Each structure stands twice: as C-alpha cells, then as structure tokens.
Amino acid sequence: PTESGFTTDVLALYDWAKARSGNSSIVFWGHSLGTGIATNVARKLQEERGVQVDAVILESPYTNIREAAAHIPVTKVYRQLPGFEYLILDSLAHANMFFTSDENVKVLSCPLLILHAEDDAVVPVHMGRKLFEVAHNTYKDKSKVKLITFPEELGLGHDYISFNPELPTLVK
C-alpha cells in the first residue's frame, strides 16, 4: 500500500458512490491513518476537479505521518536509539508517505469535524488539537471547523469513539 494508491482507491470509491447517490451528501470519515487519506482525497477533488465534498470527519487524526511517527507512544522506546530519525522518519519520506493533513486542511473549505478522545494512547489528543488549530486559523468561515474531544472517563481511547451513544447527535 502507498499513499498514492490509497488516494487513487478512495477517488475511485468516491466516483462510484457519487454516480449512485443522486443528490445525497457524501461525507468522508477517516479514522487514524484514514484521516490522512480522507484529507488527501478531499483536497485532490477540490484542486483537480473543483469539487468540494459535503463534509470531512476526522476521528483520532494526526497532523502528518512524520510527526505522528515521532510522537506516538509506541515509538517512545525507539526514539532514544541512534538513527531513529533516519531509519524510521526519513524512510517514510523516501517511500513517499507523507499524509499531510496539516497542509491539506489549509486548502479545504468544506465543513470539517475533528473527533478525538482525551485518553487516546495511539495518536495523542494534542495532535488532533494541533490539526484543529491549523484548520481554524486558515478557514475563512471559522464556523465550519469543529473539534470535539471526549473525556478520559468515557474510556473511548483510540478505537471506540464510534461507540459513544451521543455521536450521531454530535455529528449532526
């Protein structure tokens, strides 16, 4: 799998869904790694086709893959080793893996909702907050950018925001 391949696949899926959806809204909902893919495709549609998706929802997002790899807890032990940046972080760039949601949201103008749990042990909540700040600072219509964080006591972590019974109401 490659960043380019993921983006191409989701563009094909978007075209397929759009052809069959009539006037229904199409919302991109990305979770974790998928948040980078969702912003890539939304940006590509906007820049290359002049098409704005109806909305983008990012669940447990990161700013870009390099920063995520450098800060996610699972890499903590490796960060101390010599060559971590070269072997891990630079290898992502050499493989053309960037997933720059922080750059992508600067271009978007569709409604953007960021969801993040305070107790996310995979992608720290500070990354979701940072992505929100980037988007909020660049969007002309600030009301289109929202961040919802879920308190630690809910125990939603990285994978269970979708289990929150209030989520449908929050998304609306």
UniProtKB/TrEMBL annotation:
Domain Serine aminopeptidase S33: 6-76
Gene3D superfamilies from the UniProt entry: alpha/beta hydrolase
GO cellular component assignments: endoplasmic reticulum membrane
Superkingdom assignment: Eukaryota
One GO molecular-function entry: phosphatidylcholine lysophospholipase activity
SUPFAM superfamilies recorded: alpha/beta-Hydrolases (SSF53474)
GO biological process: monoacylglycerol catabolic process; phosphatidylserine catabolic process
InterPro entries to which the protein is assigned, alphabetical: AB_hydrolase_fold, Hydrolase_4
Name of protein: ABD12 lipase
Gene (UniProt): Abhd12_2
